[in-house]
């Protein structure tokens, strides 16, 4: 199994949705990310230059999401995946985004996308 880096339960507020009320006020979104990365070099060297800087990636995701006005969660997930894949050490990424309370009687609703470097041109 490949090495992985996880970002778990990143809770952000954003405009997301297609209904008028969703376009007026920010809602919570919960983001979970799993990046497949070869961590052998960083594990041996103990040098940040050999590692994926997940702090930088997280800051970029926060900036994107909190300032976005996407209609679809699918689009947001695709853009988050693109940010992760900008780091050449990330081989592939799984992004799960949920909208808590979006459906009556459900804790949340969301999507999961899996992207590889080949899926995302221009990265």
From TrEMBL:
GO terms for biological process: folic acid biosynthetic process; tetrahydrofolate biosynthetic process. It is an enzyme of class 4 (lyase). It comes from the Bacteria. Keywords: Folate biosynthesis, Isomerase, Lyase. Signal peptide: none annotated. Gene3D superfamilies: 3.30.1130.10. One of its GO terms (cellular component) is cytosol. Pathway: Cofactor biosynthesis; tetrahydrofolate biosynthesis; 2-amino-4-hydroxy-6-hydroxymethyl-7,8-dihydropteridine diphosphate from 7,8-dihydroneopterin triphosphate: step 3/4. Catalyzes the conversion of 7,8-dihydroneopterin to 6-hydroxymethyl-7,8-dihydropterin. This is 7,8-dihydroneopterin aldolase. It comes from Gimesia maris.
């Amino acid at each position: 199994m490949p090495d992985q880096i996880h970002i778990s339960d990143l809770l952000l507020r954003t405009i997301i949705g297609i209904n008028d009320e969703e376009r007026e006020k920010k809602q919570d979104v919960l983001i979970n990310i799993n990046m497949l990365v070869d961590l052998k070099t960083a594990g041996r060297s103990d040098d940040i230059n050999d590692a994926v800087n997940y702090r930088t990636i997280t800051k970029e995701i926060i900036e994107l999401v909190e300032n976005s006005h996407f209609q679809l969660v699918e689009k947001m997930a695709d853009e988050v995946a693109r940010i992760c894949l900008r780091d050449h050490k990330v081989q592939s990424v799984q992004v799960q985004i949920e909208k808590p309370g979006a459906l009556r009687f459900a804790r949340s609703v969301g999507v999961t996308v899996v992207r590889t470097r080949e899926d995302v041109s221009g990265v």
